[in-house]
UniProtKB/TrEMBL annotation:
GO terms for biological process: prolyl-tRNA aminoacylation. It holds the Pfam family tRNA-synt_2b. It is an enzyme of class 6 (ligase). The keyword ATP-binding applies. It comes from Candidatus Kerfeldbacteria bacterium CG08_land_8_20_14_0_20_42_7. Residues 40-237 form the Aminoacyl-transfer RNA synthetases class-II family profile domain. Its EC number is 6.1.1.15. Keywords: Aminoacyl-tRNA synthetase, ATP-binding, Ligase, Nucleotide-binding, Protein biosynthesis. It catalyses: tRNA(Pro) + L-proline + ATP = L-prolyl-tRNA(Pro) + AMP + diphosphate. This is Proline--tRNA ligase.
């Protein structure tokens, strides 16, 4: 669809918002790609939404190449699911919503509490494995201080991938294939990402892997080998 520039909704600004601290926040709001509604919460305007949808197309292509099946899970999650995993009172950035009927819900920061019961209904034997599910969805985290513009907000879009396997060996093989697809995604965006060892955070006690792109606007520090591919976040060094 072609829109005449004179009719295009592109509310540019001469100055960045006074509370803008990150470069991406300043540039995207001034150029009319996004509009800040409150700290850590943004609306995507026509230009920003066009970019976002193109990003989603690329990510979706590589997840499907990995064998992932796309789903869309609910943003509201049952309190009982979070209590069962023990994270209702330990996940420190969880939005908890009381309803007028006395029921409490979680506003999803991630979807482990939804996807695993869902998968359990499907898995009757090892013959149903392996399979993987992914979604591209809005997430919510009650961050004490929203920062880094769109990079770390209270409401944000995220692609999450969940896989189910009969053996540890099959899981590890899939994990390596997934890492390669993520690297291809960054390459398609023109970014040189480094696979970096990091903490599993609230999700795992094991070492996880982050995909780091060197940037003057970055907030993390990594140790990277100049003659091999090893890299590690200094938070665990």
């Amino acid at each position: 669809m072609i829109t005449r520039i004179s009719k295009a909704f592109i509310p540019t600004k001469k100055e960045a918002p006074k509370d803008a601290t990150s470069l991406n926040q300043k540039l995207l709001t001034r150029a009319g790609f996004v509009h800040q509604e409150l700290a850590g919460v943004y609306s995507f305007l026509p230009l920003g939404l066009r970019v976002l949808r193109k990003v989603e197309v690329i990510i979706r292509k590589h997840m499907e190449a990995l064998g992932g099946q796309e789903i869309l899970m609910s943003a509201l999650e049952p309190k009982a699911n979070w209590e069962k995993t023990g994270r209702w009172n330990t996940f420190d950035v969880l939005f908890k919503l009381p309803s007028q009927h006395g029921t409490e819900y979680a506003l999803g920061p991630s979807h482990e509490e939804i996807v695993f019961p869902l998968a359990k209904e499907k898995i009757e034997s090892y013959k149903d494995l392996p399979f993987s599910l992914f979604q591209i969805q809005t997430k919510f985290r009650d961050e004490p201080r929203a920062k880094s513009g769109l990079m770390r907000g209270r409401e944000f879009g995220m692609k999450d991938l969940y896989s189910f396997h009969a053996t540890k060996e099959d899981l590890e093989a899939f994990y390596e294939r997934a890492k390669q697809q993520y690297l291809l995604i960054f390459k398609e965006f023109g970014l040189d990402a480094k696979v970096t060892e990091a903490s599993g955070g609230a999700f795992s006690k094991k070492i996880s892997h982050e995909f780091m792109v060197l940037s003057d606007a970055g907030e993390d520090n990594i140790l990277a080998c100049s003659s091999c591919t090893f890299a590690q976040n200094t938070e665990i060094s």
